[in-house]
Structure formats: structure tokens, C-alpha cells
Design a protein that fits this description.
Distance between the termini: 48 Å
Helix content: 10-25%
Largest sheet: 6 strands, mixed
Length: about 325
């Protein structure tokens, strides 16, 4: 049987007709030199709302991008109808290189990685001081994801009228994480929004937190002209709230001084995508203590130098416990 190479120059080979009548596939991708740049504001069932100059343009992803998906915060290049008029649709033909990526998985056994937001400078971790109770381990997980993805963390504590922030401040005081404490009254009169806004100016900040902590209420206080449904029910038995935000949404701060990205409330923050050896980077108060660890130390074994480091008073034992709990979870995932 004759076999022909890819670049045969013989002219006696019949070309098989294209039965579908459409154009054959090609590896050559159009350059789209006339494409305009836009910012993805939100994604809803395959349709992406993008900001192009001062217009909100509805777009869809071009087939040539394959499986590559654009997320909120992505800088993209678009072609087609960019007027932003009703019933018009543009195409996203290119996704620009990302400067940071916030990722999560549903849990530590889930291999499917979800990109929450791209190109954010800062991750605001919102936690209530009561109703529902704070969840330090969830905060630690968000810190791991922030450091791993190239975002700077910011701790936002709400509902200080129900409980003091002293315990959490003690737990995270050695990490040098910027923080702000707010109350319901301060949110209503605008004082809290003003103090939080000072930490957001000129930056893209993603807000994360579990349901019921007041995350979307805070976002609405920061961007009052973009009101969203905020009243979530907190279950009296589980202490968990009902989701009031169903998709990530980027909103501009007044005066074009930055962006906030409101994200759906999370019940868990899986770290299946994070290499266990990088988890220690989320604990800068503990990291210096690893200098005397044996080679390839897992930081959860008898010879680990962190025990002596903590015993000498360099860090809070609760922080070492959180680190090892995270590492144990990741190790179980790796072994499955």
C-alpha cells in the first residue's frame, strides 16, 4: 500500500471532498490585528460581559480558543460588534497573559480546578466575628490560595457589634496582614466603607468569604449604585448562610480608583491545585523556622525544626496546628 507523507508533491492523489460543505480545519489562527481590548466583568452561561472603553459589550468565546476559558478580571481582545447595543454579540479571540490567578477546588479530593478571578492585586478575606462564627481554617486556606496565586491578602472582619476582634487579631497579628474591623452601624452610616475603600484604591480586589458574613453588603456599601440582593439567611443550627451572590462580578469604585470583585459565598475552599511544598509560604511567621529542618521535611514529622521554633516563642502554636492540618489534608489527597 502506498503511503504518502504530509508534504507530498505528487499530483495523482485525489483530494477527498468535504461532505459537510464547510471549510476544512486549519492550524493557522487569524491574527485579528484590529481587535479591541476589554475587561471581563462577569460570566453567565457562556456569555461574557466585557468593558470596552466605556461600554459594556456582550461577547462569547471564539471557537479557536479551544478549551481556554476567560474569567472575571481577564484582559481580552475582542472583534465583531463592539457597540454594546442590545442583541449584539462580539467574539473574544485572545486572552492576555495573567498577572495573578485565584484558584480553588470544591474540596481537596476534587481534581477540577476552578479559576475564581484573574489579574487581581488583592484578596479581601471577609469573616464575621459572630453570626456565623469565624472559621480560622477557612481563612488559612484562603491565605494559601492568595499567596500561591500572587495576590496580597487583606482581612476584613464584620459584625464587631456582636463580638470583639481580639481573638482573630491575636491569631493573625504576627502575619503583618492588613486588616479592617467593621460593624453594622458603620456600614449603614458609611464610615466602614470609607475605611475599607482606603485599602482598595488603585487596586483590583477580590472579595471572598463564606455565606452570611456580610460580604455582599460590604460590596454594596462600597459601590452603592450597583445594588445587589444582600439579605442572606443564616441557619441557626449550622451557622452557615444562604448564598446571595451567584456569580462573580467586577464593579468599579467611584472615581475609577480601583475595582472590587464580588464572588459567591463559599462553604469550602479546596486546595487540590496547590503543591504541598508551597503551603508553608502562606505562613510567613513559621517559614523562618524551617531553616533547620531536615532535607525534604514534610513539616509534620518528629525531626521537624518547627516544633522547637514554636516552643521558643517565635510563633503561635495554633498557627503550627493550622499548617499541619492543611498539610495532612493535602497529603491524603496526594496518596489517593
Amino acid at each position: 500500500m502506498r503511503r504518502y507523507g504530509k508534504h507530498t508533491d505528487e499530483d495523482d492523489i485525489r483530494a477527498r471532498p468535504n461532505r459537510k460543505g464547510n471549510r476544512p480545519r486549519t492550524n493557522i489562527r487569524p491574527k485579528h490585528e484590529d481587535a479591541a481590548e476589554g475587561l471581563v466583568l462577569t460570566v453567565d452561561r457562556g456569555r461574557l460581559t466585557c468593558l470596552v472603553e466605556d461600554r459594556a459589550v456582550m461577547a462569547m468565546k471564539a471557537r479557536e480558543l479551544g478549551r481556554k476559558a476567560a474569567v472575571v478580571g481577564d484582559r481580552v481582545m475582542l472583534v465583531g460588534d463592539l457597540s454594546g447595543k442590545k442583541d449584539t454579540l462580539a467574539r473574544i479571540v485572545r486572552i492576555q497573559e495573567r498577572t495573578s490567578v485565584l484558584r480553588r477546588t470544591a474540596d481537596d479530593d476534587d481534581p477540577y480546578e476552578r479559576v475564581v478571578v484573574a489579574n487581581a492585586d488583592q484578596l479581601a478575606i471577609v469573616t464575621a466575628l459572630a453570626d456565623p462564627e469565624p472559621r480560622p481554617r477557612l481563612i488559612d486556606r484562603c491565605l494559601v490560595a492568595a499567596y500561591d496565586g500572587g495576590l496580597e491578602p487583606l482581612l476584613v472582619m464584620t459584625k464587631s457589634d456582636l463580638a470583639p476582634p481580639d481573638k482573630l487579631l491575636e491569631l493573625y497579628g504576627d502575619l503583618d496582614i492588613p486588616y479592617v474591623v467593621t460593624s453594622r452601624e458603620e456600614l449603614e452610616n458609611g464610615d466602614a466603607a470609607d475605611r475599607v475603600r482606603q485599602l482598595l484604591d488603585g487596586r483590583i480586589t477580590a472579595f471572598v468569604g463564606h455565606s452570611g458574613v456580610g460580604k455582599t453588603t460590604l460590596v454594596n456599601a462600597l459601590v452603592p449604585e450597583e445594588r445587589r440582593r444582600t439579605t442572606g439567611h443564616v441557619n441557626a443550627v449550622t451557622g452557615r448562610g444562604r448564598h446571595t451572590t451567584t456569580s462573580a462580578l467586577a464593579l468599579p469604585l467611584a472615581g475609577d480608583d480601583g475595582w472590587v470583585v464580588d464572588t459567591p459565598g463559599v462553604r469550602s475552599f479546596g486546595l487540590a491545585h496547590v503543591d504541598p511544598s508551597r503551603v508553608i509560604h502562606a505562613f510567613p511567621d513559621l517559614e523562618p523556622g524551617t531553616a533547620d529542618c531536615p532535607r525534604a521535611c514534610s513539616h509534620d514529622e518528629p525531626d521537624c525544626a518547627l516544633d522547637a521554633w514554636v516552643a521558643a516563642g517565635h510563633a503561635d502554636p495554633a498557627r503550627l496546628y493550622s499548617l499541619r492540618r492543611l498539610l495532612a489534608t493535602r497529603e491524603r489527597t496526594e496518596g489517593d
